[in-house]
Amino acid sequence: MLGLALRNVVRHRVRTAITLGAIVFGVVGLVLSGGFVHDMFRQLAEVIIHSQTGHIQVAKRGFFTFGSRSPEKYTIADPAAVEKTLAARPEVADVMGRVHFSGLLNNGRTDLSIIGEGIEPGKEAKLGTYLVIREGRALAAADAFGMLIGQGVADSLKLKPGERATILLTTAEGAMNTLDFDVVGVFQTFSKDYDARAVKIPLAAAQELLNTPGVNLVVVSLGRTRDTGASAAAIRAGIGAQGLEVKAWSELNDFYDKTVDLYDRQFGVLRLIILAMVLLSVVNSVNMSLFERVGEFGTMRALGNRGRDLFLLVITEGAVLGIAGALLGTLVGIVLAIAISAIGIPMPPPPNANLGYTARILVVPSVVASAFLVGFAATVLGSVLPALRVSRMPVVAALRQNV
Asked: How do strand 244-248 and strand 56-60 relate by DSSP bridges?
């Protein structure tokens, strides 16, 4: 049966080429679109991790829920011990402390409400590879009273590197405190809202402002992003009894999960559309081919073949076409994905973002396998109805086509 199906597929070259073209087009579309979507997910994840949150954050219990309003009430009193415990884990690349605060930034003429972070400049420079310095430079360890400001803050207060600004805030005891800082640079992240209010100062200066030796967060940077889930669970189990809570980067950014869910649904609809397209194309091509071969099938029935044999023959031909088309489509899709990724696709800034990016098309094994199965399944399913019709065709009516 397989040998006869192969000969029939090769013999009807035009119909075979039309059917293969539809299958290849659909599979290539799935490979490229799926790779594009997964690259977007990957780049969004990396830009979140390496411009804001790090891979994992550890804080005093309650900080992630209430800390945005009163960060001074949720400090880790002995951050050095926590950092030492976390740094001992083999998958951890670096550990750093952060202090969060909110207050007013004054340029000598007007005030702006800001959210600030006290950071360790050297460690943050290694983590913040997606933090773009638009003007000036990044904070250095020698900048005791240096300050990085977001692009939106710089635009609102008309501040530039080299100028001075004053931070005014309320300490944990309720007292007012101020410090003067030198603006050393202006940064941009993926989030326009964040850049409109964010400033970064050295950790020691933030602790002096707040009159506290503690930190709000211990940020963990991992060697590989894919280790985040397992590492967060292990850290949570190890230090959960110390009154601390652990959050992975994805838990801190619910819009990421919403974005993934949105595009996964859209990609699912695209798969259904391509499945329907290939299915209809195959049904049309097979129907036309079978119409031309009615006399051939009548002769086969007259020679003793049963309707079931004809049904299996048509299905086998569809399976051969499906395997060939899906395999060719996946190979072409992979080659195109690699070629397009080598060039890159310039993309404009996403909604509520400042920075554009260069998109690529990832070769994702699950996407490639899914595309192959869609191409194959659509071809086999498209052969079922024509095969049923051929198997039920009266022998005499079929033989008349030979006259």
From this structure: antiparallel
